[in-house]
User: Fold this.
Amino acid sequence: MLTDQIIRSAVRRALAEDAPWGDLTTELAIPEGAEFQARVIAREAGVFAGGPLVVAAFTETDPRVEIVGLAPEGAPFVAGDELARITGPARGILTGERVALNFAQRMSGIASLTSRYVAKVAHTRARIADTRKTTPGLRALEKHAVRAGGGANHRFGLSDSIMVKDNHLAALGAVDPETTTAALTKLRERAGHTTSIIVEVDRLDQLEAVLAAGVTGVLLDNFSLDDLSAAVRLIDGAVIAEASGGVTLDTVTGIAETGVDVISVGQLTHGARALDLGLDAGIDTGLDEG
Assistant:
């Protein structure tokens, strides 16, 4: 969830990076009392995210800046659409412009890519989820953008839930079915009853030992479609079946059709392209002149 503290902290860090000693151009070139009007315009189609960051970027530079007509989070748009109108002191708007656009472009890119994945699996039971492959310091913003695009959030961080991966099992000495089940059973006994335990497997023959430990979910990593289908049959609804590893827009539909519950896609955050959004001076009233 995006709190005001998270939003303001991210924006202040970005403004401090962009104008650590002030905006030299604006302060020397723009009269202090000058007013300015502008519109955030989409240069290409997509799904909008990052509106709260846009507002904060401008109001942090000058609280007198007003933003109206802001597109809702998750709203689809096409090239040429107006996403917000900005009015107020010119210095504040010009100083906040790049930070506002950077956040909106990045987050809208994530939301747009997520929406494409979600559309690919809409006819199935599978949910599209993100991962922890996020930009350091911006995880809350990027996971918000995934939700804006119709996706679901995986765990936010290492503190949220237990996910046992292959290296964890190796460190525990779980080298065969018997030792794997024993290690996971001890873990389940130590964990609180409300804590979920997800275990990664990369081979079908590992699945039975993991299920025997009474875990919450299984992460089927880099499975073939045939093995995914076989795993879903073995699980038979007893735990959450999650697929991951090398998921693309070309492969996600086939993965979803195997019957898995969740498909986690690292590309949503680490591979999304920033959308092209711009700030155009002037506001078109829609009235003819003359």
About this structure: The mean pLDDT is 94. The chain has two domains: 4-117+273-281, 123-270.
